[in-house]
Amino acid sequence: MTVQFYINKFQALKPDKSSGHAKPHKVCLLLAVIEQIEQGFITTNKVIYNDNLKSRFTYYFEQLQQGNDKDTPYLPFYHLQTSGFWHLDVKPEYQEEFSALKAASNSNISRYVSFAYFDEELFDYLKSPATRHALKDALIHNLDSLEVQYQRWALSIGKSEKTVKNYVGALKGSISNWLYDAGISKENVLSIGSYAQYSVVASKALQIEEFRAKNTTGNGMYSAALKSYQSFLADVTQVNVKDDIDKILNDENTTATEKSTLVNTRIGQGAFRDKLIQYWQGCALTRYNKMQFLIASHIKPWASADDKERLDPNNGLLLLANIDKAFDLGYITFTEKGKIVISPYLDDYQVLGISKNMGVNLNQQHQDYLAYHREVTFKK
After folding, report:
1. Signed CA dihedral, 60, 62, 65, 69: sign only
2. Which residue, 29, 144, 164, 209, shows the most beta carbons closer than 10 Å to its own?
3. Partners of 332 in the beta sheet?
4. Dist CA 212 CA 352 (whole Å)
5. In whole angstroms, what is the distance from residue 242 CA to residue 43 CA?
């Protein structure tokens, strides 16, 4: 089968819309699997239903879930069979019991299924960077419109409804019109789901004379809108993480063991996360202690840190996903005594569960990392 055949298949997954919106479960599971193929955790055509896969499903699910959607990775693992390209290898001794199943559960998937596997041609396409990105982009078509997804994402990181409305209006209105008039793009900007394609379009938009003039009189609102949508696409497709991991894997001065440790640290797994869990015993800010909802976050950003700093647990906070995002983007930071500082650019921070009387308990080894975060990362 051609890659276009599978692109069409990915675009036609038919997610459950019984709740009035497209449930993201199948998309999230496939994004998690593709990520594991990219990063070398899956090297043969066998997808095992394990904690690693479930953790990465949860990451994507937190970005895309709506309303009362439930974090249930076993459902897409089971129901993707209907796609025609996803197959389950059922243990021989449980064939009869599995065929009689009326509903999937976390326990019966783990008990009955050895692994899932793709059509062989599709697995080859997913291993190749040349075709993998097109397949990943195709998955986004199964969700609500990109405009709706972007609005939900922007609100989730603390942007006010007014700001989000202004950004959406600028992106699909003025900016799209300027790009059309300049002969650069005939698409509504908010219909572009490819990070690479959008990045090219956005860089060209910045050079349009009318854009530059209006951006100046609008106090940078248009460039802020462009950057915000780019951050959304990067977040959903984990572009920045992939770039960092590629650099690790291509470093000839790093041993295979060191590469494995650094890759695990970059995606919030392994010893680094375990040490943060042991130290913080829950969210550093709220004390919430359900570990599956917590992110291992670097204080001094990964891209700015050396390998020693990347592995140092003192360069880490354990945070709820929404708070982690605000910290990672520089919308909150902490004083030397651990008191929270909220950026003036973070609108409606209360909707993220953040308040001005919050704080974290710091040790002396945290101080240099947080000083860097306050001076470089924090949006003053």
Report:
1. positive
2. 29
3. 342
4. 33
5. 17
Closest Cα to residue 159, out of 356, 323, 348, 379?
A: 348
Q: What are phi and psi of 103, to 5 degrees?
A: -155, 145
State mean pLDDT over 314-318. 93
Q: Which residue has the tokens 């994507």?
A: 60
Q: What Cα–Cα distance (Å) separates residue 50 from each residue in 2, 39, 47, 57, 124?
A: 30, 16, 9, 11, 22
Q: What percent of the chain lies above the pLDDT cut of 90?
A: 43
Judged by phi (left if over 0) then psi (alpha if -120 to 50, else beta), residue 40 lies in left
Enter the tokens of residue 270: 């392994």
**According to the model, what pLDDT value does residue 360 have?**
94
Query: Mean pLDDT score of the chain, rounded to an integer?
Result: 87
- Per the model's pLDDT, the better-predicted residue between 245 and 76 turns out to be 76
Q: Find all residues with CB under 8 Å of 209, minimum gap 6, and list them.
A: none
Which residue shows structure tokens 């921070």? 349
Cα–Cα separations (whole angstroms), residue 174 to 166, 219, 232, 254: 11, 15, 20, 48
Question: What token pair was written down for 332?
Answer: 């909150």
Per-residue model confidence as pLDDT tens digits over 118-150 = 999 999 999 988 788 788 878 877 776 788 888
Does residue 239 carry a pLDDT above 80?
no
pLDDT digits (tens, 9 = 90+) for 169-218: 999 999 999 999 999 988 889 888 777 788 899 999 999 999 999 999 99
Domain boundaries, the chain: 3-142, 146-237, 252-377
DSSP structure class, residue 339? B
Q: Please spell the DSSP secondary structure of 167-206, one letter per residue.
A: HHHIIIIIIHHHHHHTTS--S-GGG---HHHHHHHHHHHT
**∠ CA 373-375-380 to the nearest 5 degrees?**
100
173: nearest Cα among 126, 211, 212, 133: 211
